[in-house]
Write a structure and sequence with these properties.
Layout (H helix, E strand, L loop, with lengths): L1 H186 L1
Length: about 190
């Protein structure tokens, strides 16, 4: 019985050690499970976050696809417009070349006109100079005539005075003669 008791005690202690080991292992496993649970939660949160980012990226991708198709249409329009512009530009260049040729022709005509205008202007200046000289000559003649006219007016004025003096002198001579006669008459 003692032996059996020792045996049972031994088994009990062994079982107790096993229980402690198991309890320790359970505790470690619980901690491991808690850590794994937290990791799982974190991973779930990250997965949700990545899922939301994925959905947002899909929406963005859809928007970019629409934008890309719109840009492709716009590119086609630009290519068409560019072709039209190129054809318009070539037509415009042809017209420009014609216009340049006409402009050169008109420049030549303008240069000819300028030259003829210069010649005409030179002749006109020469004529104006001649007219100015003639005008100065006429002005001098006019001044001489005016000076002669003034002298004649002075001479006329002098002659009028002389005439008045002569008439006065005649009047005085008659009066003097009469005065002398009167004196002589009065004396006799």
């Amino acid at each position: 019985m003692q032996e059996e008791l020792d045996n049972v005690t031994h088994q009990y202690n062994k079982k107790e050690d096993d229980n402690r080991d198991l309890a320790s292992r359970v505790k470690d496993l619980e901690e491991e499970r808690g850590r794994l649970q937290r990791t799982a939660n974190i991973q779930q949160t990250q997965a949700d976050k990545y899922k939301a980012l994925s959905e947002e990226a899909n929406k963005k991708n859809d928007g970019l696809q629409h934008q890309l198709s719109a840009l492709e249409k716009e590119l086609e329009n630009f290519k068409r417009i560019q072709k039209q512009s190129a054809s318009n530009q070539s037509a415009t260049e042809v017209r420009l070349n014609r216009a340049m040729e006409e402009a050169d022709k008109y420049k030549m005509e303008l240069n000819k006109l300028k030259q003829s205008n210069k010649d005409t202007a030179h002749q006109e200046r020469k004529r104006v100079e001649e007219l100015k000289l003639e005008n100065k000559k006429l002005e001098k003649q006019k001044a001489d005539l005016m000076a002669g006219f003034r002298k004649q007016l002075k001479l006329i004025d002098i002659l009028k005075r002389q005439k008045m003096h002569i008439e006065s002198a005649k009047m005085l001579s008659f009066t003097e003669e009469e005065f002398m006669k009167a004196l002589e008459w009065g004396v006799s």
